[in-house]
């Protein structure tokens, strides 16, 4: 989803709770990575890998001049032979420390092991834990901030991720620059509307 479609979606959602909720969550995400400066870890579940969100956050980090938003994608089935940006395994969560931010994206409550155990240890080590998922359950209980996307909600998890990543980048801009930068992005990305989808990040 590009900036044009995000803008259209925001128009459709105007007056609903989703715009405020996604912007608040994006503000917490941005505030955590910028103020703590320890880096952003992004992890999903064995069945759901948020590689698309990782790619969007990398773009937002570049467009907004906020390199802290660029995440390290932590993967359940990472292999040493994978490209470097796809080769970080769950062991990275064990090394999480104070100042780092861990964003967990899960369409449903993860199994207690191994993911939740590692998230719990990361929190105990001082990392800030954020969660995008169904709400409730162990993950929400251990997260410092949660954006609930329950099954059957008006928006699906993928759409919410687009809104969050876009808001994180726009809100990172100094006051007065967001609207102009957003117009620049609209201009550039309008050309891509008829292009084929991007290849796997």
Task: Explain what you see.
It is a single chain. The chain is globular, with a radius of gyration of 16 Å. The chain has 8 helices and 5 strands; from the N terminus they run H-H-E-H-E-H-E-H-E-H-E-H-H. Strand 1, helix 3 and strand 2 (71-74) form a beta-alpha-beta unit. It has a 5-stranded parallel β-sheet, sandwiched between helices. The protein has one domain (3-190): Rossmann fold, CATH 3.40.50.10490. It is an alpha/beta fold and 201 residues long.
| Average of pLDDT | 84
Give the neighbour order of strands across the main sheet: 2-1-3-4-5
Q: Could you estimate the helical fraction of the residues in percent?
A: 40-55%
CATH third-level topology = Rossmann fold
Low-confidence stretches: 174-180, 186-194
Measured distance between first and last alpha carbons: 14 Å
Describe the largest sheet.
Answer: 5 strands, parallel
Discrete helix count? 8
Give the tally of structural domains. 1
The named CATH superfamily: Glucose-6-phosphate isomerase like protein, domain 1
Topology order in helix (H) and strand (E) letters:
HHEHEHEHEHEHH
| CA radius of gyration | 16 Å
List its traits.
201 residues; alpha/beta; Rossmann fold; five-stranded parallel beta sheet; 8 helices; 5 strands
Put the structure in a nutshell.
The chain is of the alpha/beta class and 201 residues long. It is built from eight helices and five strands; from the N terminus they run H-H-E-H-E-H-E-H-E-H-E-H-H.
């Amino acid at each position: 989803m590009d900036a044009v479609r995000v803008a259209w979606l925001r128009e459709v959602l105007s007056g609903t709770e989703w715009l405020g909720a996604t912007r608040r969550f994006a503000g917490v995400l941005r505030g955590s990575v910028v103020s703590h400066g320890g880096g952003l870890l992004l992890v999903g579940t064995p069945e759901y890998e948020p590689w698309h969100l990782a790619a969007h956050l990398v773009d937002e980090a570049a467009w907004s001049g906020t390199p802290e938003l660029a995440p390290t994608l932590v993967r359940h089935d990472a292999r040493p032979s994978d490209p470097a940006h796809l080769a970080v395994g769950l062991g990275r969560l064990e090394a999480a420390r104070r100042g780092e931010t861990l964003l967990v994206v899960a369409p449903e409550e993860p199994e207690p092991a191994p993911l939740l155990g590692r998230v719990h240890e990361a929190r105990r080590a001082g990392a800030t834990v954020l969660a995008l998922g169904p709400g409730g359950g162990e993950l929400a209980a251990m997260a410092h901030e949660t954006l609930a996307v329950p099954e059957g909600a008006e928006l699906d998890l993928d759409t919410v991720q687009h809104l969050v990543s876009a808001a994180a980048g726009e809100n990172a801009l100094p006051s007065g620059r967001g609207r102009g930068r957003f117009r620049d992005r609209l201009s550039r990305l309008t050309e891509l509307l008829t292009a084929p989808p991007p290849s796997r990040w």
